[in-house]
From TrEMBL:
Protein name: Ligand-binding SRPBCC domain-containing protein
Organism of derivation: Kriegella aquimaris
Highest taxon above the source species: Bacteria
């Protein structure tokens, strides 16, 4: 079994409260997800985030492939972090931790995603050539969208690292 980890950090020149208000609203995922992925929230985003919340989406991670993605918010500490875990979707495992930390001049957003691909060795073979590149693009797109949304305050930075566990 091959487990992968994506670790991303991005700084934005906004307050922790502003970042939390935006990032903890599942409806805003559509704003920071590449348009070609046709991301759409189906249900579960009708109230503020809470542990146990189930959110359903439609997403098209690759051309000609669309899937339903169901996540559960398993942990929430208001203003500081939340964790979402896939219950049904394109990954064999998806565990995504979102952290917010105030820093001088803004906020640092940190994402740690542990994930496993389905289809055994075939999944491992397509990781580097397809899945990793798609995730890199998604996080690059997210960085650009967040900078556009909050750019009136200045510039931000992003670091992105992948590891195999």
């Amino acid at each position: 079994m091959k487990l992968y980890q994506l670790h991303a950090k991005q700084t934005l020149p906004i307050s922790q409260k502003e970042a939390w208000e935006f990032l903890s609203n599942p409806n805003n995922l559509k704003v920071i997800t590449p348009k070609h992925m046709a991301f759409n929230v189906l249900s579960g985003a009708d109230r503020p985030m809470y542990a146990g919340q189930i959110i359903s989406y439609n997403v098209s991670p690759f051309p000609f492939y669309s899937t339903k993605w169901v996540t559960e918010i398993t942990h929430v500490k208001e203003g500081e972090y939340f964790v979402d875990e896939q219950r049904f979707g394109p990954y064999a495992l998806w565990h995504h931790k979102h952290f917010l930390k105030p820093i001088e001049g803004g906020v640092e957003m940190e994402d740690i995603i542990d994930y496993k691909l389905p289809f055994g060795i075939l999944g491992q073979l397509v990781h580097t050539s397809i899945v990793k590149k798609q995730l890199e693009f998604i996080f690059y797109y997210r960085e650009q969208q967040l900078l556009q949304l909050f750019g009136k305050y200045g510039n931000g930075t992003q670091e992105l690292h992948f590891n195999s566990i």
